[in-house]
Amino acid sequence: MQKENQIIVDGLTFIPYLNCETIRTEVERVGKEIARDYEGKQPIFLCVLTGAFVFASDLIRATGLTDSKITFIRYKSYEGTSSSGSVKQITGLTDDISGRDVVIIEDIVDTGLTACRMIEDLKKQNPTSVKFATLLYKPESSQTGFVPDYVAFKIPPKFIIGYGLDLDGKARNLPDIYVIKEG
Ligand code: IMP
């Protein structure tokens, strides 16, 4: 349901936060940073499902790295609008990452629990390197001290939806990002 420019999902009201032009500018900036760092290499991009699929699609094209590969992994930690505190791997890796440069692509780093768990899991498979790119990073929510290598936007600890991010599976298809309306 949509009223003027606010959106209501599952009874919660969201207001516009980052529009698609702003998102595109920052995604292209991150893409260029990755292109510079991986010039002449053959990285594997590892898209974390489900939320990162929209960002990953734009980011890998922004890098222009034709020798790269993309693969997928699935973790789940959120229920409703907050972290459940436990991180589950739902779908594992199908590609061999040993001896490869891996760039994880995530939608958002909140507590950092998913990122830390994922990196720990991946390092067991002996990649050459593991770096972490995220669309959004909430530094004030960190419970781990984890700091991503590539960040499109640092944001305050508020719940957001759109551009791949969901509320219980809904609203991933919004081209812009919305933040929950407080009060
Ligand atoms: P973390 O393990 O707490 O860092 O959370 C990472 C995961 O929580 C992300 O991949 C998202 O799926 C989900 N998440 C965290 N913050 C938000 C949000 O504001 N909106 C939607 N999903 C979120």
The CATH class is Alpha Beta
State Rg. 16 Å
Instruction: Estimate what percentage of residues fall within beta strands.
Output: 35-45%
User: What number is the mean pLDDT?
Assistant: 92
What are the distinct ligands in this entry? inosinic acid
Number of domains: 1
Architecture (CATH level 2) name: 3-Layer(aba) Sandwich
Shape: globular
Low-confidence stretches: none
Oligomer: single chain
Question: Strand pairing plus helix content: what structural class?
Answer: alpha/beta
Q: What's the total number of strands?
A: 11
Trace the largest sheet across and list its strands. 6-5-4-7-8-9
Helix-strand string: EEEHEHEEEHEEEE
Looking at the structure, the CATH topology is Rossmann fold
Q: How widely separated are the two ends? A: 20 Å
Number of contiguous helices: 3
The main sheet comes to:
6 strands, mixed
Helix content: 10-25%
